[in-house]
Amino acid sequence: MAVRITPSVLNADFAHLADECARIPGADWLHLDVMDNHFVPNLTLGAPVIESLAKVVAQPIDAHLMIADPDRWAPGFVEAGARSVTFHVEAAAAPVRLAREIRAKGARASMALKPATPIEPYADLLPELDMVLIMTVEPGFGGQSFLDLCLPKIRRARELLDRVGGDVWLQVDGGVSLGTIERCADAGADTFVAGSAVFGADDPEQMVQALRERAVA
Ligand code: DX5
Ligand code: ZN
């Protein structure tokens, strides 16, 4: 199974964002956490920052929208240059229409689930998606502890995706580190966000490679 490491820059130095991204040439994608202080109790960055960053970084941008009303805002992130746009299903009024709109604009469409949101009610939506993101912490902040209680949901998502077929990626986000990535990979995840593990390391690029090796093992 292909493995993708998609580091989150949430714990990087925001004053030098492009330089921070250049420190991890081995990353497959760059994960940008958009928070609006409504859907989550934290405020980060928006489409203008992604638009500027997309012009200067080597990797494609994976925008994780932790925002209210993604139906209104998500298409703008495709226009800003994000190649993958993830909306939270808890916040979307019309997830099918939104996924189709993101795809029609030319990006990968992805749906995220908070830890307490079950995957089963959304099983029929999976063919509309390019990725499912299972949150393994409550969204809002980097540096939180991995929630083992999310592992059964990763397994169930893997089973459902295998049944659907196609190439829908299964991403995990929150507390992913050398100590937890193996559990996620065993459960069936193939795309791994890591924030503090990568940018808290002395050598972020080496950490990206170490995470990849452990996920494949
Ligand atoms: C949390 C964000 C994550 C966060 C991950 O709400 O969605 O992407 O940056 O950070 P770590 O890896 O430190 O949990
Ligand atoms: Zn994220």
TrEMBL record:
Keywords: Carbohydrate metabolism, Cobalt, Isomerase, Manganese, Metal-binding, Zinc. One of its GO terms (molecular function) is metal ion binding. It comes from the Bacteria. One of its GO terms (cellular component) is cytoplasm. A divalent metal cation binds at H31, D33, H64, D173. Substrate binds at S8, H64, G140, F141, G142, G143, D173, G174, G175, G195, S196. InterPro entries: Aldolase_TIM, Ribul_P_3_epim, Ribul_P_3_epim-like, RibuloseP-bd_barrel. Its EC number is 5.1.3.1. The active site is at D33 (proton acceptor), D173 (proton donor). One of its GO terms (biological process) is pentose-phosphate shunt. The keyword Isomerase applies. Binds 1 divalent metal cation per subunit. Pathway: Carbohydrate degradation. CDD domains: RPE. It holds the Pfam family Ribul_P_3_epim. Signal peptide: none annotated. Its cofactor is Zn(2+); Co(2+); a divalent metal cation; Mn(2+). It catalyses: D-ribulose 5-phosphate = D-xylulose 5-phosphate. Catalyzes the reversible epimerization of D-ribulose 5-phosphate to D-xylulose 5-phosphate. HAMAP family: RPE. PANTHER family: RIBULOSE-5-PHOSPHATE-3-EPIMERASE. Belongs to the ribulose-phosphate 3-epimerase family. This is Ribulose-phosphate 3-epimerase.
